[in-house]
Amino acid sequence: MSAIDVRAAITRAHQQEWARVVAALTRRFGDLDIAEEAAAEAYATAVERWPADGVPPNPGAWLTTTAHRKAIDRIRRESKRDDKQKEAQLMYVDEPPEPLGAIDDDRLRLIFTCCHPALAMETRVALTLRMVGGLTVPEIARAFLVQETAMERRITRAKAKIKDARIPYRVPGAEDLPVRISGVLAVLFLVFNEGYLATGAGTDPVRHDLTAEAIRLTRLIRALMPADGEVVGLLALMLLTEARRTARVSASGELVTLDEQDRGAWDPVLIAEGHRLVRERIAARVAPGRYQILAAISAVHTSARDVRDTDWSQVVALYNQLVRLDPSPIVALNRAIAVAELDGPEVALAAVDRLGDPLAGYHAYHATRADLLRRVGRSRQSREAYDRAIELARNTAEIAYLTRRRDQLG
């Protein structure tokens, strides 16, 4: 196997196995710091040994075993650790793991720990992206638009709080699930979005490992709470979005917008499942939540065989419903995009311009405004808006698309 093949295998193992390794070690040792450090050391060992020894038949098992040994070595060599604590932890290492329940999963346990309500929402997302998604601290810092040192401190404090507060590493009981679920869904949605439009430098513009993990964990949560409409709605939204993944980036690495995508390349199996879940929630005749409405909007888009067949009046009606639940500037921006198709770009532009202050640092605001200005013939202002959108964007495929659109103005 060539050096390039080995590097590719290590990269693939990191994407596919990181969460499994960290979750298994957290369950075994009850310490996120130990789990993260041992997992990182195991991957560093793989970088050293796999080029010479070859890629093992089961990379995940090799990494978990290696990380387990690294964790034990760390515990034994920390001479400052209290002897009783060290002895208890090493005894725990030798205990057989408790059996998993029918719907239990180490990674699901890990995400409920990372999403504990004792942590601030931005901390839950950052910790989940690091511990479950495997993103590096610099990648997470860019996603949050903060300094790397500040993000490192945030994650370190979060792990310390989990340890000091003795936050349990488990899936909550049935009585606690309804309270805990909304925060978990918000984190999973943000993890999915990081994969859907990746912000990390040097990463693929679409990170299937993150979108797939978010979908997998959402499926598990749905199995735990099958009657929860928002869990079903989020899963439907993810599936209908993931169905378009292969059509979203061109061969040259440029973002392909919804109206230009090859709809024949969309995944019909995922679309069918997403539509079935949306119909399931409509049949329940229960007032929908945010994720259910977003899934319904996506269902309208993916029902049209051609962009010209899109029922824009239905899309705007759904956004009107969403605005009542979530009157945020970003929802208003997305509603304006639909209004442009129904009532024209001039009407939409007026609505977008009213959102300027709260969205001044948001690249999609400037990208939307640039497109609307182009459509009404205000080329100079459109170019300026494209410049600002390109400056703020972090996704390589999106930057390529925005640059081409700007340059087409002449």
Automatic annotation (TrEMBL):
Keywords: Sigma factor, Transcription, Transcription regulation
Name of the molecule in the record: RNA polymerase sigma-70 factor (ECF subfamily)
Listed GO biological process terms: DNA-templated transcription initiation
Signal peptide region: none
Residue stretches making up the RNA polymerase sigma factor 70 region 4 type domain: 111-162
DUF6596 domain sequence ranges: 180-280
Keyword Secreted: no
Protein family according to the UniProt entry: Belongs to the sigma-70 factor family. ECF subfamily.
MF terms (GO), sorted A to Z: DNA binding; sigma factor activity
Domain RNA polymerase sigma-70 region residues, every copy: 20-80
